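Much of what follows relies on a compact textual record of a protein's fold. A record is reproduced here so that you can trace the correspondence yourselves:
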Amino acid sequence: MELHDVNPRKLLGDKGYDSDAIRADLVERGIEAVIPPRSNRTIQIKYDREAYKHRNLVERCVNRIKQYRRVATRYEKTARAYLSMLSIAAALLWVRTVNTT
């Protein structure tokens, strides 16, 4: 699995990432797997529930940014232009959040 951050301490993932191969790869790299076990796993694996709660915050943020149609449909043809629109959407989201509190 290719990761953006070269040396993350933890990987937050949903049940779709609960495989022995992924877990072994993360252990080999020295990364803590914060992945809840699937319900059909014979031996339930413990995970950091408090750290897993932060995954929800990230997903909600991505969902809010995708509410901007231009970002969700990726109208921009180049990565640079897309990153610019993504930055504008994140800034607008931040301004809305600050003004409501």
